[in-house]
Design goal:
This protein is an alpha+beta fold. It is built from 16 helices and eight strands. Strands 2-5-6-7-8 form a five-stranded mixed sheet. A hairpin with a 4-residue loop joins strand 7 and strand 8. The termini are far apart. The relative contact order is 0.09.
Length: 410
């Protein structure tokens, strides 16, 4: 289905809470405050385009299409190893969930008309039922469902309380309610590029309650419009909002977290020295860091867009990024030129063994197992993460006593 969806499940983390954002975005689009990028997708948003291509390859693989058919549909698959390996990892994950008698549905359309008004308009100007597309759904004979969502990006996505997946789950339960008694549904996030696989299980009754209470009420508020709707900025709600960076509600929330009284500021904002903060204060600031960083990134984007349109902005200008030198001629021409200068082949050509991904692509399953003995994965350096992160905690390199001694010496 093509067309515009007001209440897309993918943006539900915003509109479920910040109900006023829907009309505000539409008003800004109409007035020209928000300008749609008319460039081709692969240029306007390369990361999103890459993800779309990865989903297409994955779908074709699950449907049993040949490499030749895939290459014809997605030419990038012929030379992008990471694209193929990401799709292969996802397909393998889906296949591992299959059982005898299970039914697999790929890129399945999920209808949500039971809870959300029909506000999707197709190319013919006709209303179509509100919904979305689930990457893969597996219905098992024991009354459980697995719903798998492929994420091709690098930003970590989690299954727990993921509103997009919960809304899809509601649509799936509604569809299969008359066919079989579904008691549980498991939502899966498959993110091969981050080696991240996350699962959350819900009771069917809990999902239906979420749809009846949260989704339907938010949809009704948005349908009524002002003054019922409200702005409710948050880290998740603002992350991908088109109004991020100039929204007054977001600005008020973020600046209030940075300083106690924004109105008292004159020329400059005083930045507090972290060493003067207590551990409780440090944790409070850290909890807001992602939201503040997202706000600052949105502000930078807005200034960049202003300068790109030819408008001047005091204190900032557009400059060219620093780049590295690269050869302007092809390898054969360069090799001849360098040979004429007296360099031999060892000085001209540098060779090294291929990457693990590139080598594995040429091997069968048995050969990959043999190769595993020659592959190692180094431990990642310690990094800060919220306690909700499912990765296990690591022990500090020093004991508390040793850390206290070092602090006393410092």
């Amino acid at each position: 289905m093509s067309g515009h969806s007001r209440l897309s499940p993918s943006s539900s983390s915003r509109w479920l809470h910040c109900t006023a954002s829907i009309q505000a975005i539409e008003d800004d689009l109409e007035s020209g405050v928000i300008v749609k990028d008319k460039r081709p997708d692969n240029i306007a948003n390369p990361a999103a385009y890459w993800g779309t291509q990865c989903h297409t390859i994955s779908e074709m693989m699950l449907l049993g299409k040949s490499s030749k058919e895939i290459g014809k549909e997605v030419p990038e698959s012929l030379h992008d190893d990471e694209l193929n390996l990401t799709a292969e990892a996802y397909v393998g994950y889906v296949h591992n969930l299959m059982r005898i008698g299970s039914i697999l549905m790929v890129e399945h359309r999920v209808n949500l008309g039971r809870w959300i008004p029909n506000e999707v308009v197709n190319d013919k100007g006709e209303e179509e039922e509100q919904g979305g597309t689930a990457d893969a759904i597996i219905v098992h004979l024991d009354g459980t469902i697995d719903m798998i969502d492929l994420k091709g990006g690098m930003g970590m996505v989690f299954a727990k309380d993921n509103t997009q997946l919960k809304i899809y789950s509601g649509g799936i339960l509604d569809e299969f309610d008359m066919i079989t008694d579904i008691k549980k549904i498991r939502t899966h996030i498959v993110q091969p590029r981050r080696d991240h696989y996350d699962v959350e299980e819900y009771l069917a009754s809990d999902i239906i309650r979420f749809m009846d209470v949260m989704v339907e009420s938010a949809a009704k508020e948005i349908a009524v419009g002002h003054p019922v709707t409200v702005f409710a900025p948050s880290e998740k709600a603002c992350q991908w909002c088109p109004r991020a960076g100039y929204c007054e509600a977001q600005n008020g929330r973020v600046t209030a977290d940075i300083v106690a009284d924004i109105d008292s500021m004159e020329e400059e904002m005083e930045i507090v020295d972290p060493d003067t903060l207590t551990i409780k204060q440090l944790i409070r600031v850290q909890a807001k860091s992602a939201e503040i960083a997202g706000f600052l990134k949105s502000v930078e984007k807005r200034i960049f867009e202003r300068l790109s349109s030819g408008k001047k902005t005091t204190g900032y200008k557009l400059v060219q990024k620093n780049t590295n030198r690269k050869w302007a001629s092809n390898d054969e021409t360069l090799a001849k030129v360098l040979a004429d200068m007296g360099l031999d082949d060892d000085q001209i050509w540098a060779s090294k063994i291929g990457t693990i991904s590139a080598i594995e692509k040429q091997l069968d399953a048995k050969q990959k197992k043999q190769l595993a003995a020659h592959i190692t994965k180094p431990e990642g350096a310690p990094t800060l993460a919220p306690t909700s992160d499912k990765r296990p905690s690591i022990q500090p390199a020093l004991s508390q006593k040793e850390m206290d001694e070092l602090e006393d010496k410092g």
